[in-house]
Amino acid sequence: MKDDDATLPGDPFMAYRGDTLFIDGCAAPDLAARFATPLYVYSRAAMRAALGPYQRALAGRAHLICYAMKANSSLAVLQTFAALGCGFDIVSGGELERVLAAGGDPAKVVFSGLGKTRAEMRRALEVGVKCFNVESEAELETLSEVATSLNRRAPVSLRVNPDVDAGTHPYISTGLKGNKFGIAHDRAVAAYRRAAQLPGLAVVGIDCHIGSQITEIAPYLDALDRLLDLVETVEAEGLRLQHLDLGGGLGIRYTDEAPPAADALIAALLARLDARGQGGRELLFEPGRSLVGNAGVLLTEVLYLKPGEAKNFCVVDAAMNDLMRPALYEATMGIVPARRRDLPAVVCDVVGPVCESGDWLGRDRLLGVEAGDTLAVLSAGAYGMSMASNYNTRPRAAEVMVDGDQAWLIRERETAAGLFRGETLLPG
Ligand SMILES: *Cc1c(COP(=O)(O)O)cnc(C)c1O
Predict the structure, then answer these.
(1) Using CA atoms, how far apart are residues 26 and 28, in angstroms rounded to an integer?
(2) How does pLDDT run across 159-191, given as a tens digit for each residue?
(3) Which of 26, 86, 348, 355 is catalytic?
(4) What CATH number should be reported for the domain holding residue 402?
(5) How far apart are the CA of 355 and the centre of ligand 1, in A?
(6) Is 107 inside any structural domain?
């Protein structure tokens, strides 16, 4: 991506006014000066705007949008989506506690994940989640035992692996036979029969989630068809599936991707559902990235320019521990100056201070910057802070939410002392 691209991903909430990058109504250089860097900044208006097309496309249908909070699980983000009527897709007991802390409604929570522990199941039953998305036949047995011991019936949906190719990166493709996720399509009917027999379970639905950063509608339609075939088979045996959960996975534009809009995707799915006479069922979606990805940036300060024979490096104060996507998936994310300057541009790799060659944020970028300037890594609202670590004993970044020209600190920067608070020296 060139730094003079007219529209940035996240526009109109991420846009230049003159030479200055604004996040909604807040100037990025001012935020960096006020809160220091590395700094995640999110636009609440951009999150609302991303949810809108989902809500409008589903208006008039029984539905629940469960924000897949692993994309960004900060409390103020959860609070934002809870206030807009969303439920949550969670993958751990820790995420459930976050939902509760943010004021989310547990009755709108679906609990996904292939390794739920008994303790997590117990807690989710006690607070009354909407549904467990069960990923194996063994999990059915354990969940039934846990529920029976509490004198409850656990509402369950089976996550079926529809064996469709979502056409995305292997690390974020989840709906193929070789993936660890879900119950194989050809085992699903038997699993439903077993679930119906177990005393601690109440079958309520069916779900799938075929991958992430999906930029086509076709894989969703394939998955829907595969799921509906199963629905028909299972219901012919007398079981009733109240809801159909099509997961998340819709992609966003990082550089030049052109994913379908959420409302176009949903319109296509609704048309297929109606054509098959299945349009009346409650529909669930679990979008993560598409609700928050383009609503956030990571601001980072240029520490050093390091010209070299083979490569020029731009060393910044954010690193792979703050933003793992480039190191983990070789993901390309836009990197632009917070304030454009009239400096000669050079092609450089934008790298962090962490002691790993994989610690880069961008490769071969044309940038005209000096030490002390602020850069913005774009589309960093999803799988950014939620994947951050403390590698190299680096305190995690602060987070700010903006709305119009207001900015709130929603997570304070960690301190080094805070990082080893729970550790003890040996006696002696
Ligand atoms: C990660 C995940 C999602 C969200 O995926 P996105 O690509 O962020 O939309 C939804 N459902 C499940 C089960 C997931 O694991």
Answers:
(1) 6
(2) 999 888 777 666 666 766 777 788 998 999 999
(3) 355
(4) 2.40.37.10
(5) 31
(6) no
